[in-house]
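Hi, here's the filled form for the chain we discussed.

Project: internal
Contact: R.S.
Residues: 422
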Amino acid sequence: MLAHSPEPFIGVSMQYRIGVFGGLNTELTDKEGLLNLGLKDMYVALEWVQDNIAAFGGDPDDVTIMGLSAAAHGIGHLIMDINQPKRLFHKAIMDSGAHTARATHLPSSALNTQHFRELLDLTPCAHFVDLLDPEILTCLRGLPSEVVDAAGKQVFERSNPSVRWAWQPVLDGEIISRRPLDAWKSGKWQKVPILTGSAHNEGSFYVPTSANSSGDFSDFFHTLLPHLSPGDFSELEALYPDPASDPDSPYVEKSGKREIGAQFRRMEAAYGHYAYTCPVRQTAIWATSHSDSDPPVFLYHWALNKTALFGANHGDQMRYQTYNKEVREISPAQDEVAGKFHAYCVSFITKGDPNSMRAGKFAERPEWAKWSGQKGMTMLLGEGNDERAGGTGIGVAAVLKYYNWAEKECDFWWRMSAKWED
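And the returned structure, exactly as it came back:
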């Protein structure tokens, strides 16, 4: 990404703790001051940049934070943090992720207590009864990290997929002092320009390809969202027409591949909208709905098909965004998609606007209008290109459109989002 930017900038890669190591959020860790360690790691890295980047020729007053998926969720929480005394970043790129996509509980919630108990029961620390005993942490620290990691992953998988995922950020009164939707509604957050977007088939990586019956679809979403009402589920079923009973459903499986179940397309669409597409679009709407003077948001939709099975999948855009050799050398069309997306992003990083930098091989590219309120313009990237999926279409590298794809579905998921909070 750096090497091909017409304007120089400095890249700093940060590591932060994930899973049980970054999110062991319980009443005990609250008492010990150990909540949301993964988010705190992000802050430590940003503080390092503030203290040291000038020595490398960088500007501590012009920092862009960038992350994909869970990292984008984390960035969303940092944007909402109004307790940070000093501005540590000034622009944000959030790829396929938003902090409103996951439930945010109190550390003392029954769910977090349950996950903590399950974790201990999978380790040699299972003998502790009082979950507020500080010796529990001494016991866990004395174990090999592999043991704790394996136990944490097992607890996570028991609730995957679900709004009951383990090791998620919690309300800590510090970084996360408000629930995500309440924070947006307040109009108070770190006001920075945002470039964000999601892929067309975000759910294909996460749902079972073997999903075959209407019952498989229903069971999946009852497990995912057990607190929704029967009426909510009826609305969900209607929004995503069942290919088993509706031959005109857009989710009819046409590949002929035996390993692909009849409900896979339907399930991946619904899950992708719920977990990624609609929360990302929600960021664009909320961040621009309070005042015309708020910083701009630029929204994209990644549409380039990588495979016939998974389509434009979660995270596929990353290698294009960084102008990676793996994709730019596939074909001239792939190079153009990668080059234009990369040019937009490095212009945003260096200038705060994806349009400002007009130099280099991809100086000529469509103007990317900022999002505005409830219905804005979206930059479609790679629309109609299916070369990598075995097709011949090269499509259009970048085109700005009013794009109302999944509009009704997102209206539904946004109404449901308030129910994820509790």
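Let me know if anything looks off before we file it.
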